[in-house]
Amino acid sequence: MQENYLLQTEKLTKKFKKEYSVNSLSISIPKNHIYGLLGANGAGKSTTLKMITGLLKPTSGEIISDGHKWNRNDLKDIGSLIEQPPIYGNLTAKENLKVHTTLLGLPDKRIREVLKIVDLTDTSDKQAKNFSMGMKQRLGIAIAILNHPKLLILDEPTNGLDPIGIQDLRKLIKSFPEQGITVILSSHILAEVEQVIDYVGIMSHGILGYQGKINPGEDLEALFMDVEYETRKKRGII
User: Fold this and answer.
1) ∠ CA 35-187-113 to the nearest 5 degrees?
2) Which segments cross the bilayer (predicted)?
3) How far apart are the first and last CA of the chain?
């Protein structure tokens, strides 16, 4: 495996009964970049991310993590925010993070560090249930990066956010490669994703239809629609 790839999948497949959610997926995630995993709802993005994070067992295929076959020890190098942030509404941001530093055996100074990174240092005694959606997402990301992960996985992180929340989150995500964190960003909102990603993988009906580096001025929407059209054509849908 090329050493500049932090993570790769080789013919990764997940089958539920007779249906393929992910079918022979081979993606390559370059180190210290933001990789956009794009696709319409039901394309297989979340299933792929759940296999990478150990939440689902692949039917077949392999995951290669930093040059070796993935094993559960690799989870210590992965932070993720999939679906809802894992927060306790009756606790403050600091208290939420304290729960996780205690479980991970991390020093309290790490709480201050990640609160600064996600811009939640001024939340004081405010309970998380009273946070805005954007603040909850940032707290979820703070939890995900507590353990200094090499890989951060974000599944539809801007869902439900207002324009200011999206802008704040975009700025935060773009800062991670400079900190040595590789990001996989899953979304179906093309206009938002194209402002932060360096590389893209486009999925359609569980299949990888395109993968490559994003060039300045490239029309991501046109590329996405071409992939979707060709995949549907091959499947006999159109």
Assistant:
1) 65
2) none
3) 37
What the block records as the tokens of 147 is 């353990």
Residue labelled with tokens 């490559």: 212
- Token pair 């707290």 is found at 139
DSSP structure class, residue 215: P
> pLDDT tens-digit profile of 132-149?
999 999 999 999 999 999
Q: H/E element holding 207?
A: strand 207-213
Which positions ≥6 away from 88 have C-beta within 8 Å? 95, 96, 99, 128
How do residues 168-199 score in pLDDT, each as one tens digit?
889 999 999 999 999 999 988 888 788 899 99
What are the residues whose beta carbons fall under 8 Å from the beta carbon of 22, sequence distance 6 or more? 12, 13, 14, 44, 47, 48, 51, 206
3-state secondary structure of 31: coil
Residue range 5-84+155-234, CATH number = 3.40.50.300
CB atoms within 10 A of CB 56: 17
